[in-house]
């Protein structure tokens, strides 16, 4: 189970992204006003505030450099920020005037993938300076009728096969694996949907890259096998607002955390058939940013208060509310000593009953 630990200082700007540094010592949040706030973790003290020119739409820490963070903006620019360098930041321009919705980094080949508009732009960084690599073209457009074209918008990216392939989850064009060298599609998974057209609002990949969870903007989340495209499960979540919702594999895939637009997040079991816990937020709050920290046991701080937070190899979750001009917050949760209890079994109740439950 997870217990509420504390809220970080509130802001009136919608929080769009959260991420932990690779050394587990810093939590970053990005908001609609272009602020990136850095908090020392686990104490939650704000250590630094950065500012970019547009709304922050995505964040990613460099996997090998704990002082480098990638900041995706609303107008197609990625700011590469080095927290300890004299000249802190510089911009990577994609040439697309659209939000950077997703970022992925391949540490094997030092390549950054940027999902922006309908494009996926690759930047190479074998050594300074960064160079433009290539532009993965969008998959063929799908038309509902003669008057409406559905744009293929990448919502999540994940490198696979030692960086030789890039898997992209598109808003209305399925899940496509691209071969980096040829820029050709290898395979496509068309998500199951109760609507006429398959929709993926947001997505996350398991650590081993074998499973993907997509927000379907209809009744919650759908899980798919990357290997064969099989639909593994549906994770129901009441949809109060038609917005993309995040999901997250945590505890090595033993649990799945799902965002929501109804004021609480659901923690599912890794086998996808049980709700383990309901994490309550403000009534009707939209939770569109999630991040987890598997363990803080590697910290060797002499600070006794920090050690108290991290005893027994504690795990942490950070969730954030995302509503413009309201009182938004980042909420920190910590594993408790009590064991997990089954809150809701998918075999006993359906979505309509879940929507009626008062958690």
UniProtKB/TrEMBL annotation:
Database matches in SMART domains: WD40 (SM00320)
InterPro entries: WD40/YVTN_repeat-like_dom_sf, WD40_repeat_dom_sf, WD40_rpt
Protein name: Anaphase-promoting complex subunit 4 WD40 domain-containing protein
